[in-house]
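1st attempt posting a full record on here, be nice pls
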Amino acid sequence: MIQRDMPPVLVTGATGRIGRLVIDQLLAAGVPVRALAHRPETAATLPAAVEVFTGDLTEPKSLDPALRGAGAVLLVWTAPPQTAAAVVERLASHVRRVVFLSSPHQTPHPFFQQPNPMAVLHADIERLIASTGLESTIIRPGMLASNSLAWWAPAIRTDEVVRWPYGAAETAPVDDRDVAAVAALTLHRDGYAGADYVLTGPESLTQAAQVEVIGNALDRRLGFEEMTPDEFRTLTEGTAPSSVVDMLLAAWRAAVGQPAYLTTAVADILGTAPRTFRQWATDHATAFTEGP
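the predicted structure (as tokens):
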């Protein structure tokens, strides 16, 4: 039951991996939800209870109708950096609270300390938010479990061996649903102003071990072969900026032989243990076989 006397929460990045799940969590908690969409047709699959507004982070004035009367905003930055200051200024003039989906660029672990243009942008936006006096919460997911779909599902669907660089690199994949649950809770409950959370899964797994876990979920034995960094650059040419590819390769190289950074933030906030990568893979097994 939606609580109509509660100010709505505006979700940017509403059709993305995390934003879409945050909407579900908020609706389940009875929170009125608004979604910001660059084009209305992209929001056609959102629940009927969601109020959709057309707006664009590159045009700060376009956000005003969605912000008017809202109580909080989930900020997922999906635009070039030039308008960040103007967008944050507009948030501060309309709402009381912002939850920002950032990255663990401050985390003292080699995996997160590689040169990363997105981390620089996130740090700048965090400084902008801090300067406004908004009630803010910073959410820093580590490696998302769902990344494995983009990376390995194409080979798995065609029964090919999964070829990937730095198979021995360890990460702690965090379930997208846990990230969304944390974000939703901090958007509509008090007590999280000024908080800063790094969110990880509960276990450190090499990339090769993650592929094995997916195979177990599919009841198949998946082959894994090491790919060289240069082969990876060729594979991703035209699909990802070279700076992102270089960052990933540097991060994976730095993570070889290093147990992944783990936190208890998900359990501390939600009161339940974070989902394991095995749980995520089991729940999403069909996505590895039925196509994108």
